[in-house]
Design a protein that fits this description.
The protein is mainly alpha-helical. Helix content is 64%, strand content 0%.
Amino acid sequence: MINSPSYSASQPEQPHGAGAEGAGPGQALPPPPPMPPYPAALPRMRWWQRHAVRVGLLVGLLTVSGGIILALVREQTGTHGFLVGLGLALLPVPLLLAVFRWVEAVEPGPWRNLVFCFAWGACAAALIAIVANTLATEWLVGSTLEPFAGGDEPLKPDAIGATYVAPVVEESAKAVSVLLIFLFRRQHFRGLLDGAVTAGLTGAGFAFTENILYLGNAFGRDQLTGDSGMASVTAATFFVRIVLSPFAHPLFTLLTGIGFGLAARTPGRRRVRRALLPLAGLLLSMGMHGLWNGSATLMGPFGFLIVYALVMVPVFGLSVWLLVWARADVLRAVRTHLPAYVAAGWLAPTEPAALGTMNARHLARDHAKHSGGRKAVRALAAYQRDATTLAVLRRRGERGQADPDFVDRERALLNSLWERRETIRPAQLHAARLLAPPAPAMWLPPQQGGWGWGAPYGAPGWGGAAWGGPWAGQGPAQAPAGPPAPQSWPYTPPPHIPPQQR
């Protein structure tokens, strides 16, 4: 174990004749070197820097925004319209949540981030949009466009606002949640999948509130005209917003999330690219949102169908393909880059294969649920998440994209995996036996006191045949409680990492 140097209150007295160069017998020894100063006291944390204060302010902001938007929507739709719109707007929400949970299942993040994104879209972003859209449209039409309007055809404020104002205001308001996660929860924002999930859930929350407003207003209009059934405005609005385009707002915001996800995968030294990628994604989302709104207001009776068929459907299909590819890419990284830690003894030989497929992960979780209960399931979920993050981190290092905190993050993840090894071991072995390919036969010359470093076919026990490791040949009683603190890390760092970061 490596211990940091300690300093006593006084230096030990040295014998005469033993001292600095030039101090002979009977001569006075030079004074000892000055003691290192005690570390300065940490600066006192300001009240607004406390985590609890920030969380409380954020929750309060979302609560107040939700109350205001609830009152505004109810005022516009009426009580009956609000209830009808709420019931119909809830229908696509479980589907959207299930889709984005499936996307992030390979590398799940904290549920608090997901709740925040949905709440921001439904409350804060919706409130910003409902206020700013009206003010910006009135300013644009009244002060800017109206003096230049000519001809007999009057300006259409609603069409102009929906096509040119709403996309800019709404996509900017929704992008704030992605930006906040990117800046303040950086350890949970690792790539395309995290950007897509945070952006998609924000868009789903915004669409939920907007659907309440549109469906509630449609119901109120039907109440005035007496229309009902399939010929009603409510049925038409439901068909367009809930059946044809439930993914519209999540798809727009998804482009912003992809930009942030690409920025998260960009090395920190390329600051210009990291700044331009989110901006490009935001501009694309605004453009697509404006095209979608303009197709229903400015492009005639068939504009909506043309844009839906030629733009929305292809972009939706391309986005689905990209998310499926990103999931497969993360699993591929697990199978490719975790063997380095198998060779070092931190993981079992069968674990990269058991962690590299979703089928094996589900089998392991089912076994943990029936054998160890919720505690084992939570430990296994954390183990799978940390192993995935470790594989992606090492891939970045081998590509020359390591951040300055690479070694610290890698060591923390390895220690986290090691602490949970006993809890997750039965479930991992169960999944490995069912799905993982058998490890090839391997012979290593025996060494004194064991079967060799990382031998996958050692003696029975934790370091034995099933798991291997630096303590192969030791039974459960003799295996140490954790890995020793080595003089050098027990594996070769990625070749592109500078020596000072190893």
